[in-house]
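User: Before I run my own analysis I want an independent prediction to cross-check against. Here's the chain; please return only the structure tokens and, at the end, one sentence I can use as a sanity check.
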Amino acid sequence: MYTDGRGEGELRGAFPGVRSEPVAEGWEHRWKEFHRPVRAGGLWIGPPWIPPPAGEAAVVVDPGRAFGTGAHATTRACIELLSRIEPAGLLDAGCGSGVLAVAAAKLGFSPVIAVDSDPVAVDVARGTADANGVEIDVRLADLLADPLPDSDVLVANIEVGAVEKLLRRAAASTAVTSGYLAADSLRAAGWTTIERLELEGWAADAFERAH
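Assistant: Structure tokens:
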């Protein structure tokens, strides 16, 4: 734990055998070292304290209150698969920080709707869209109970059971899904796999609705 001189004295009074070490200057910012830029689908994705390369399409995401910095293998795989699909209207189901929705907008998808059941995620996703200068319709809804917004493309980077339920409910003609391991069994009745991408033991799939 971190404390000041007074706290150290109190700890020593309560626990005589406690050890202490000086903390290097700037320790409160050390966590930022763990958030490094990545690239996926032709996009640079990184935190706001690292400037993107000049002239490069960028998605800036502040790692904070909502899931999704862009660095995880499932997120990168989804963005890569989205970059290979003809842009159209898109629904980001379970948007978290909004990184996938913003990446989709940067890739030319429009209109983009982002939905999450967590009010904090909705607030963060709106902030992510604003920070990147893209227009996204962010909504609060229960993806597995409320009516789903119409879209041509569904993207969902969530756990495998929720992905299966969404695929049964969605009216989209194309879907990109992830959030599960390559070894997981994904039931996608009514869909035909276009492509599977595996990164670091995780998998992402692109589907077309079966005819």
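Sanity check: Residues 26-34 have pLDDT under 50 and may be disordered.
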